[in-house]
Amino acid sequence: QSTTLKELEMQKNELEKLQVAFSAALLVSGSETIGPFNTHTNLIFKNVFVNIGNAYNPQTGLFIAPVRGAYHFEFYIYGPGDSSHPSGAALMKNGQQICIAYEHQTSHTVKSANGATLLLEVGDVVFLRQWLNSKIIDNTNNHNTFSGHLLFTM
Fold it and tell me: Where does the C1q domain lie (predicted)?
């Protein structure tokens, strides 16, 4: 039985849905201190290293699951070390906090990390939210990163 060109194109489109991975840093250029803010604030990672499947949006900072499956996310947060401001961010799924990376020391720079594997439905939204009253610093060394990938569909 011969496969039509349309059927091959449909198979290719289905395979491409299964290829999902992204990794991004906060800044495209320069250096910046982000925060402190008096509320939790969504972070937007604008410097995209890879965005296979285009599920991560560098204008909004949102990852939107294109297929149902198990996804793994990890993130690294870098801060200035400040007596009155910690450095931290939370991994969020559909507005619900999953886990945080948080560090507070009075001097020198600080770095914290965390990650989780999540079962996502099509359209579920994952993003990072900066902890209230915290400071994050970054520059072209890309200290702050957010990454995720599809492990397998379900």
Answer: 15-154
**What does the CA dihedral 99, 105, 107, 108 come to, rounded to 10 degrees?**
-40
Amino acid at 88: G
| pTM recorded for the entire structure | 0.89
Q: What single DSSP character describes residue 106?
A: S
Q: What is the largest CA-CA distance in the chain?
A: 71
Which among 69, 91, 58 has a CA at the least distance from the CA of 19? Answer: 69
Q: How far apart are CA 9 and CA 6, in angstroms?
A: 5
**Tens digit of each residue's pLDDT (9 = 90 or more) over 12-54:** 666 666 899 999 999 999 999 999 999 999 999 999 999 999 9
Cα→Cα distances 65→35, 61, 94, Å: 28, 13, 11
CA 77 to chain centre: 11
